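Entry type: protein chain
Record version: 2
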Amino acid sequence: KGESVTLNTFKDKYLLIDFWASWCDSCMEEQATLKKLSKKYKKQKFAILGVSLDVEKDKWKETIKNDTLSWEQITDFKGWDNTVAKQFGVNTIPSNVLLDTDGKIIAVNLTKEELTDKLEGIFK
């Protein structure tokens, strides 16, 4: 949408920052799990922020639309030089960071099983 997004946008929520790209098959496989978790915990204090390492705007937009990625998505189209990815030290994808409601990192690079278990523990 061309709007700026900051961590304050997700204040008081558990936030999963998901680093991905449309050309990354492993990333796209993880999206199915993220869709389920997003739907399951949408009414609770959980949000996902997708940070794409794509460089092609059309391919990025097409993937979001075709795969119905309904959560907030951002990119600067700089690929591996993505500003947010650099801030979090991301050097491989898929990769993720889970923040608590105070914005503190509570987990890094959770597998889909670990993420599912972590969220079940948080929201039980």
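Comment: Helices lie at 25-41, 57-66, 83-87, 112-122.
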